[in-house]
Design brief:
Rossmann fold, 310 residues, 14 strands
Length: 310
């Protein structure tokens, strides 16, 4: 018997055996029921702020937190205060025609961000978006490399904010480690994206990236309320925050708050009780049994999909 024929027969026997096993379990070979697998731990970064003082609460313990997934309480397996974890930052700047008169502000804001937030252990990339999305500089720990690119920015073209969020999340953040953060400088207007708001948000959630946005609308005569609302929803659903600075001092204050927030969070981890690998989005709720505080965190995650490799 030839080697090729022997391999074929072995493969056929394996296939028939699998079909038989599925039949015994009540499943046909084409059954599309979901598989149960061991789901990896889910990590949630939580920001806790005192409503009266606006200061970050850094003194909570594991016992203060409760986590619910789709309404079912989960067991917190790991707890830590994240104060010195390296940051992985994607800085995305709007260079469309709609911000042409505000580009000088955006450049100053971006430079201020780099030199006020980045530490030597952090890594940041720089991208711009107008009609398209362009990666100007890949991840680096040297802010001077990024500053050179920022100073050369010019405005023109349409606005593809959602494309920028989707592509940077998918191609640059999805497989990164550490605390992934997407910082956007824009008026929030989107005119030319091929991706929708929903798909952009979904990809950012898959990449576990928190979105922080600095709106440029207060630096002009007209305020784009639709753009402001889009930035607000994107940041709230990913555990980030949007700022609406109207002066240089307000801008500096916003950057200080971003820096402190990113280094004043709690990290909670749990292994989901739901083991079904269906690829669906699962809503998360974090509860702290005390009053007078605001709590921010990403609102959910996508479960793994059976047969899908990371």
């Amino acid at each position: 018997m030839s080697l090729k024929r022997l391999v074929f027969q072995i493969s056929l026997l394996v296939t028939l055996s699998l079909i038989a096993l599925n039949s015994v379990a009540g499943q046909g070979p084409d059954d599309d029921r979901r598989f149960r697998v061991e789901v990896e731990a889910v990590n949630i970064l939580v920001t806790v702020i005192d409503k009266k003082t606006g200061e970050f609460n850094k003194f909570l313990t594991k016992e203060d937190f409760r986590i619910f997934e789709e309404g079912v309480e989960q067991e917190i397996t790991n707890f830590s205060r994240q104060t010195n974890m390296p940051l992985t930052i994607a800085l995305c700047i709007d260079t469309s025609s709609s911000v042409k008169l505000k580009l000088k502000f955006e450049k100053e804001a971006a430079l201020d961000f780099l030199y006020s937030v980045m530490l030597p252990r952090d890594r940041t990339l720089l991208a711009e978006f107008d009609t398209g999305v362009t990666l100007l500089h890949d991840f680096t720990s040297n802010p001077n490399d990024l500053a050179k690119e920022i100073k050369r920015l010019k405005a023109g073209g349409g606005t593809s904010l959602y494309d920028a969020i989707y592509l940077i999340s998918e191609q640059k953040l999805l497989y990164e480690t550490g605390r992934r953060t997407l910082v956007i400088l824009s008026d929030g207007s989107d005119l030319t994206s091929t991706h929708t708001y929903e798909s952009a948000l979904g990809m950012a959630q898959r990449a576990e990236a928190a979105i922080y946005a600095l709106s440029t609308t207060r630096f002009g005569a007209d305020i784009d309320h639709a753009g402001d609302n889009a930035l607000k929803q994107l940041t709230e659903n990913t555990g980030g925050r949007v700022f609406f600075p109207y002066s240089t001092s307000q801008l500096s204050k916003a950057f200080r708050e971003i820096q402190e927030e990113l280094r004043s969070q709690y990290n909670l981890a749990y292994v989901p009780k739901n083991k079904i690998a269906d690829g669906r989005f699962r809503k998360i709720r974090v509860k702290i049994d005390r009053g007078g505080i605001n709590v921010r965190y990403r609102k959910g995650y996508f479960a793994p999909l059976a047969g899908q490799e990371d």
